[in-house]
Amino acid sequence: MGLFRRPRNDPAELAQIKEQLRFMREHWDAAAQRRDEDAQRLATVEAANTDLASVTERLARLDDRITSVSTELANQVNELGNEIERLGGNAPDTASDEARIDEIRTGQERLANEQARYQIAFREDLARLAEQLRRASPPR
Known about the structure:
- By secondary structure, the chain is an all-alpha fold.
- Helix content is 85%, strand content 0%.
- The longest helix is centred in the middle third of the chain and has 77 residues, at 11-87.
- The protein is rod-shaped.
């Protein structure tokens, strides 16, 4: 009846198996904890990347706007310079010269008003961007 006989268990062997199981459980739990921590870090990095992409996009739009405003102002200054050169050596003796001077003054006023509008819009954009950056950055 050896078929139904229970095999003998060596207590030292059982203790060794139990120790191996305990060791494997500890490592399994530590690996699971590291996996959870890594997932949290990854979520933080992804959120930071999203914020960075948003800020980068806003900065690119602001750069485009600054370039556009700079180009427009340079064109206006160039136009004004051309007007001044055209009037160059003439003395304002005649009525047509007076009309040209008035035209230049009007152009200067228009240019000054446009520059003021662009400067105000630029400062508002910078303030808006600074506020968005302030909200997006984590507290230190």
